[in-house]
Amino acid sequence: MSEHNRYSEDDIKSMSGPELLLLLYDEAIRRLTEAEQLLDGGNYEDFDSSLQRVSQIVRYLRDILDMNYSVSSDLRRIYEYLIYDINVVKVEKEGKREEIGRIRHILSELREGFEGAGKQIDREQDGEEDR
């Protein structure tokens, strides 16, 4: 199975919201790693495509924020910064190569936070069911 077709349409349709969110983060992180390798190989066209996809994912994450939560405004600012930084890397390529790892680190930290929050919610729901 190719890297791009790891999940069937049925797999995706059966995922919960938190699972889909983690999948988006995983894809963005994977594409950043791919972009880094493409840059090392001098494949600028595919490098640009990979970063464009990361930018699209981050824009989507920004656009689906529920602004009824106080943390959402902070997340929006982080996403806006990441979008800006991705575009700088795309333009300056080797000159900003080190930023790829930093962007990946930020996305990994956000992913871990959402994964932890999802586990906490699951534990709380399990506790309510036991009552």
Structure description:
- The protein is mostly helical.
- It has a single domain (14-130), classed as Four Helix Bundle (Hemerythrin (Met), subunit A) (Up-down Bundle), CATH 1.20.120.340.
- The protein contains five helices and no strands.
- It is elongated, with a radius of gyration of 17 Å.
Notable characteristics:
131 residues; mainly alpha; Four Helix Bundle (Hemerythrin (Met), subunit A)
What is the straight-line distance between the termini? 44 Å
Helix content: over 70%
Give me the Rg, rounded. Answer: 17 Å
Q: Return the CATH architecture.
A: Up-down Bundle
Bin the strand percentage.
under 5%
Q: Could you list the spans in which at least 5 consecutive residues all have pLDDT below 50? A: none
Look at the helices and sheets and give the structural class: mainly alpha
- The CATH topology corresponds to Four Helix Bundle (Hemerythrin (Met), subunit A)
Mean pLDDT: 88
Instruction: Output the CATH homologous superfamily.
Output: Flagellar protein FliS
Q: Which H/E pattern describes the elements? A: HHHHH
Number of domains: 1
Tell me, what is the CATH class?
Mainly Alpha
Largest sheet: none
Shape, principal axes of CA atoms:
elongated
Number of helices: 5
DSSP E strands, number: 0
